[in-house]
Write a structure and sequence with these properties.
This protein is of the alpha+beta class and about 300 residues long. It folds into two domains: about 5-130, Ribosomal Protein S5, domain 2 (2-Layer Sandwich); about 130-305, 2-Layer Sandwich (lpxc deacetylase, domain 1). Helix content is about 25%, strand content about 30%. The protein has seven helices and 20 strands. It has helices at about 80-90, 110-120, 185, 195-200, 235-245, 265-275, 290-305, and strands at about 5-10, 15-20, 25-30, 40-45, 50-55, 60, 65-70, 75, 95-100, 120-130, 130-135, 140, 145-150, 155-160, 170-175, 190-195, 215-220, 220, 250-260, 280-285. The strands form five sheets. Strands 11, 12, 13, 14, 15, 19 and 20 form a seven-stranded mixed sheet that branches. The chain has a five-stranded mixed sheet with strand order 2-3-9-4-5, with helices on one face. It has a three-stranded antiparallel sheet with strand order 6-7-8, with no helix packed on it. The protein starts with a strand and ends with a helix. About 40% of the residues are buried. It binds zinc ion. Zinc ion (ZN) binds near residues 80, 81 and 190.
Length: about 300
């Protein structure tokens, strides 16, 4: 979203839900954030050292989900679908009070998070939003996986996944977050292979997983009775994850991402490589052009209305 000013929510809002990995119920309270504060998690089950900043440097694990950890070892995991909703709705500053170490999975997509944020309302703030504008192509590879970013006037993600499973197979989609209808991205759920579930559960993960919050694929069949929500739901969910993980840069990114077989871990490795080792490849800017904002604002309002 190309907006000139920072935004937060208009009023506090609470919700709860089961967590995908721990299987516990977690309660969240979202509170308006101060300008330039960014996204901050606060664990209410700890009295001190309980603040965890949503920053790429605090990602301590990115296997199956994104886990943030502060320097005292206090963690919060499965943050990516909430972060993606914050990016899509256009929230820059937010305090997230959370009663345990994991964000609820809700329906496995960002759909309910977007609705909760819209119920809280959006508040425009006085300070200008900062953008990370890509100036030259940066490519990061890890064996066959690759993550490239090129200069672009808005965030665009071109993602390709390639699974041995024939039903998932090879899917590719390209989405411009400022110009395209994002309903399919917002609604796309996390997914897993039926044969992996037992292994994942043995490792103490996915304890709260069910057909209510994930697409489960068994060989050539989708086990969820209702089937898929859109024809490219698998890759669309990967694009959603990617958008959520990119917000951990602390900025809205202006660039075109081309990602092959990526995931939480690759996105985080890329961000570390970009911000820590390629400072000449980007600049931090504010948008000045009022026309851009008016144009974007119109699109933005229609998007909020459509997804209501
Ligand atoms: Zn996901």
């Amino acid at each position: 979203m190309l907006l000139k000013f920072q935004q937060t929510i208009a009023k506090p809002i609470s919700f709860e839900g089961i967590c995908l990995h721990s299987g516990k119920i977690s309660t969240l309270r979202l509170l308006p954030g101060n300008q330039d504060q960014g996204i901050i998690f606060k664990r209410t089950d700890f009295k001190e050292n309980n603040v965890i900043e949503a920053c790429y440097k605090n990602v301590s694990s990115a296997k199956l989900c994104t886990t943030l950890e502060n320097d005292k070892g206090i963690k919060v995991s499965t943050v990516e679908h909430l972060l993606a909703a914050l990016y899509i709705v256009g929230i820059d500053n937010l305090l997230i009070e959370i009663s345990s170490d994991e964000v609820p999975i809700l329906d496995g997509s960002s759909k309910e998070f977007v609705k909760i944020l819209k119920d809280a309302g959006i508040k425009k703030q006085n300070k200008k939003r900062k953008y990370l504008k890509i100036l030259e192509k940066v490519k990061f590879t890890d064996q066959e996986r690759s993550f490239t970013i090129e200069p672009n006037s808005s965030l665009e993600i071109d993602f390709e996944l390639n699974y041995k499973n024939n039903l998932i197979g090879n899917q590719r989609n390209e989405v411009n977050f400022s110009k395209d209808n994002l309903d399919d991205i917002i609604n796309s759920r996390t997914f897993c292979l039926f044969q992996d579930i037992e292994k994942i559960k043995k490792n103490g993960l996915a304890q709260g997983g069910s057909l209510e919050n994930a697409i489960v694929v068994s060989d050539e069949k989708i086990l969820n009775e209702e089937g898929l929500r859109n024809t490219k739901e698998f890759v669309n969910h990967k694009i959603l994850d990617c958008a959520g993980d990119l917000i951990l840069s602390g900025y809205n990114i202006l660039g075109k991402v081309i990602c092959y077989k990526g995931g939480h871990e690759l996105t985080n490795l890329f961000l570390r490589n970009l911000i820590d080792n390629n400072k000449h490849s980007f600049e931090i800017i504010e948008l000045q052009d009022k026309e851009i904002e008016r144009f974007s604002q119109k699109l933005y309002q229609s998007r909020l209305a459509v997804t209501a």
